[in-house]
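Retry 2 of 3 after timeout on previous attempt. Resubmitting structure tokens to design endpoint.
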């Protein structure tokens, strides 16, 4: 019953026993429940951490129940705060998209020229990308989702990337961390960096996109199926929002090839912390896997390891405990290195 508040079934059993007989000590509770004293002490430690019991001032080492009307309501309030914080994280994650929508609405209302070109099918997308790359003169910013890239995708990108870099175009790309498990993509990124492209990696990315000269951007028309087609966006408002999103993620992403570090406070890798953040937002293992470019099996393994590390019995409880420990605050990876 109290598991929704983060109270384990063992701690709840001890709590209810103390409600009926508050005078019982550790040995008395152990006898009544048929447990060992060690089990009872473990449950009492949990109740004390949740502020459901406190130390007795009259009996050294003794514990007293905190008035349930105060303690349980306070515990529920903390859960509500955590839920609010997670909702705020989801809201802030959608901020860039909201800005794009707002700019689009403003442009229509002000009768400005709306320049959104729909590109249907992968062939049309690649032709348009070749044209935009040919006309690009100064800078490219790119998010590449999906983890390891297919041979067809690498073959299509190689001559375009080479021509851009040989012309002196400043090129920055962010790939998913999971590419390190795909040797062919790793080789391709090594080749890119040797030509002068600056590559960084992130545990997850919001969408696939390419921005040309901060004036035009290509984004998928359906982020869940990039093969369907794409949208070519122009205009300072629309593209500026995407550029701001890129700079935000670029700032926190470590360079490709850098040693992956664990967070000093949590001991988590950036990948594990990203999984935790996505779980806290309510995503399924399938969605987590797609966003991070990993297999569903890997996503489930990382989730299980996180639940074990947190001592959680459910995904919801894992999110609550992580929130209590401050593991959901800040960026996914604070180990960004200036490049």
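Retry 2 succeeded. Sequence:
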């Amino acid at each position: 019953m109290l598991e929704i508040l983060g109270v384990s079934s063992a701690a709840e059993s001890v709590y209810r026993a103390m409600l009926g007989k508050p005078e019982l000590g550790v040995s008395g509770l152990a006898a009544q429940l048929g447990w060992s004293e060690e089990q009872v002490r473990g449950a009492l430690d949990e109740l004390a951490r949740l502020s459901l019991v406190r130390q007795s001032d009259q009996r050294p080492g003794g514990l007293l129940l905190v008035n349930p009307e105060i303690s349980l309501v306070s515990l529920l309030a903390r859960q509500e705060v955590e839920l609010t914080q997670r909702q705020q994280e989801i809201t802030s994650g959608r901020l860039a998209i909201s800005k794009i929508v707002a700019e689009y609405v403003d442009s229509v209302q002000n009768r400005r020229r709306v320049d959104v070109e729909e590109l249907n099918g992968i062939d049309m997308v690649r032709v348009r990308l070749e044209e935009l790359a040919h006309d690009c003169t100064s800078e490219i910013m790119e998010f590449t989702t999906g983890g390891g890239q297919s041979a067809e995708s690498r073959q299509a990108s190689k001559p375009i990337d080479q021509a851009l870099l040989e012309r002196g175009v400043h090129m920055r790309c962010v790939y998913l961390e999971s590419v390190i498990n795909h040797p062919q993509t790793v080789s391709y990124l090594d080749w890119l960096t040797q030509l002068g492209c600056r590559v960084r990696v992130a545990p997850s990315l919001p969408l696939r996109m390419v921005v040309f000269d901060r004036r035009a951007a290509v984004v998928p028309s359906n982020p869940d199926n990039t093969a369907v087609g794409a949208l070519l966006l122009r205009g300072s408002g629309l593209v500026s929002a995407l550029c701001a999103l890129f700079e935000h993620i670029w700032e926190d992403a470590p360079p490709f090839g850098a040693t992956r570090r664990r967070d000093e406070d949590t001991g988590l890798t950036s990948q594990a912390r990203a999984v935790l953040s996505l779980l806290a937002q309510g995503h399924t293992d399938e969605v987590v896997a797609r966003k991070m470019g990993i297999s569903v099996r890997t996503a489930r393994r990382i989730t299980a390891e996180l639940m074990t590390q947190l001592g959680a019995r459910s995904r919801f409880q894992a999110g609550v405990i992580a929130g209590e420990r401050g593991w959901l605050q800040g960026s996914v990876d604070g180990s960004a290195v200036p490049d």
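Attempt log closed. The domain at 115-252 is CATH 3.30.870.10 (Endonuclease; Chain A).
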